[in-house]
Design brief:
globular; Rossmann fold; 38% helix; three-stranded parallel sheet; 11 strands; alpha/beta; 2 domains; 16% strand
Length: 292
């Protein structure tokens, strides 16, 4: 087993973005809106601010009361000097957060979470224009996870890179787990998706999903990705894993037992630094596609 630290990859991406931004004649402006006192949200906002400063993006973070967030987003949408918008969740911590996500102008949606970009992802539409010059914006954490996997021998360049890989994802949130599962399936993976209600086989057709149990999924999986932010989650044990599996944990809670981590061929303990780098990459792409 060896641990994979994504910080080196993140630094390479930041260097490429910095070089790109230095070549511009004008400044990229990104605004962030923080409502929650959730420590994870505050940490993410701080990392975003540091990342923007590192590459030369101007970032302005404001603290908004919940009842003011919608109007703040609308003002940022209408401001031609704002090129990207971050919203740090949770806001209300319920279904209203989905409504907040869709208030953001897709052309300023740095995190790629609006229904506009999600619908493209689920339809496997990879461009936003007929000339295929403007690549679709992808959600930052799922994109970071794919970039990490690209650095392993599980990834096959050319064609569908995960065609021969079976992958289990423990997390089916609309922010990370569900889009990640479809991104992996779009790239050829045989994907099993789990939430608190159990597992299902991800399909790219209109047939209903097939159920699958945890033991079967893990025993078959070449790659296991977890992001369950609960200490009540039954940690994955070494004896459940397929020999030689790659294991990746993107939750702040450790989802693997120590023995499982030791038995993994590659273990990735976090993706946070690369998530921020992918957000910076999205900000630069939005600017080039829609605001330059």
């Amino acid at each position: 087993m060896h641990d994979f630290n994504p910080e080196g990859m993140a630094a390479l991406y930041r260097a490429m973005i910095r070089e790109e931004i230095e070549s511009l004649e004008s400044r990229i402006n990104v605004v962030g809106f923080l409502v929650s006192d959730d420590p994870a949200s505050a940490t993410y906002a701080r990392y975003t601010e540091d990342g923007c400063k590192d590459v030369g993006i101007h970032f302005s973070l404001t603290h908004q009361p919940r009842e003011a967030i919608a109007d703040a987003i609308r003002r940022a949408n209408a401001d031609p000097d704002v090129h990207g918008i971050f919203v740090y969740y949770p806001i209300f911590g319920d279904a209203r957060d989905a409504e907040i996500k869709d208030l953001v102008d897709p052309k300023k949606d740095v995190e790629g979470l609006t229904s506009y970009w999600m619908d493209k992802l689920y339809r496997n539409e990879r461009f936003d224009d007929d000339a295929r010059r403007h690549r679709a914006i992808l959600p930052c954490t799922p994109l970071a996870i794919l970039k990490v996997l690209e650095a392993t021998d599980a990834y096959s360049p050319g064609g569908l890179p995960f065609r021969d890989q079976t992958i289990t994802v423990f997390n089916r949130s609309d922010v990370v787990g569900r889009p990640l599962a479809y991104m992996l399936a779009n790239d050829g993976g045989n994907v099993y998706s789990f939430d608190v209600n159990g597992g299902e086989v991800i399909r790219n057709d209109k047939n209903p999903p097939e159920p699958i149990d945890r033991a079967t999924a893990l025993s078959r999986s070449d790659i296991v990705i977890t992001g369950v932010p609960s200490r009540q989650f039954e940690k994955i044990r070494a004896e459940e894993l397929k020999p030689g599996a790659i294991c990746l944990n993107f939750s702040f809670v450790k989802n693997f037992e120590d023995a499982a981590r030791e038995s993994a061929r590659i273990y990735v303990p976090r993706v946070g630094p690369l998530t921020v780098a992918m957000c910076l990459r999205n900000a630069a792409r939005l600017y080039h596609n829609y605001h330059r």
